[in-house]
Structures are given as C-alpha cells and as structure tokens.
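pasting for the record
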Amino acid sequence: LIEDAWGRGTGLSLEGLIQLVHQPPLRKLGVFELETFFPEKDRLALALRLNNLVASPSFAAWRSGPPLDIPSMLWTEEGQPRAAILYLAHLSDAERQFAVTLALSRLVTWMRSQPGSSELRALVYMDEVFGFVPPTAAPPAKKPILTILKQARAFGVGMLLSTQNPVDLDYKAMSNAGTWC
C-alpha cells in the first residue's frame, strides 16, 4: 500500500494507511485476487485493530510533538551528545510493542545510512526487555532488536539489554551479546 501510494506520488498518513488496509486500491496481489489472498473480513479486522491503537488516549502523546528523528535524539544542533529516554510505562503491552518497534526500526534505518565505524556512536539501553525478544514467539519488536544485536556493531551502535531472567531471551539475542553480566 505504501509502495502504491509513493508510486502515485501521494502522501500517506497513518489514518490513510488504515483506511487503505480495509479498502486497498489493488484488485490483485501477484496472481491472486485480493479477496482470495486477504479477504475483506480479515482486512476489516486488521484495520479495526490498527484503529484501536491509533485512537487510544494513552497513545495520543506518541502522535504529537517533534517527529521521531534519530540524529536529533542523539545530538543537539551544536553536535553535542544527548540522552533520549522513551518512557513506556503508561502504555499497554501492544502499544509498547508498537512504540519500541517504531523507534528501533527508525534507528536501524538511520544506522544503515551511516558509514562503518569501530567507535561507539550510540548506545541503546532497554530496561526489562521481557516480552520483547522471547525465545518462543515473534513480537513486532523482536526483529529490529535482533538486527541491532547482529549488525549494529559495524556502524558504531551498541545495545544493552536488561532482564531479571535471561532464559526469557531468544538464544539468537544471547549468542550475539558480547558480554553477559
């Protein structure tokens, strides 16, 4: 849907994307009719779930303020380093997953645009990572976390994960950790 909108030169808001999930401008996906591949009932269910997230009063703060821009989160306009804290305690579990996935995906995109470096440019610290990188499930935040653990070193980005119970972490995360304490 995003590729289609960009191909037409159309901007796409989150609200517009949710509407397009329900009623996409496509009739086929590959060789299959849209109804065969993703029936209208299932599209509506997904659109309603996305709408519930967007409409949640506790999520409203995430939709206001300055844009999620990694360089401005990491450095002042004068180039001085800064700490950026994403506080998630007021959000539901689904909203936390969404916020962490969004922030870390933006970090991965920024990271990959940087030249390689053996010096630390940025450090991502996640306190109480339980539920974000479980060994038996694939929540949305798991992919960007594993990507950072596997690839970020080459770009000068480190990650520190904190948990009370290391067995709650996927072995892929553990095997990419340089130090365990």
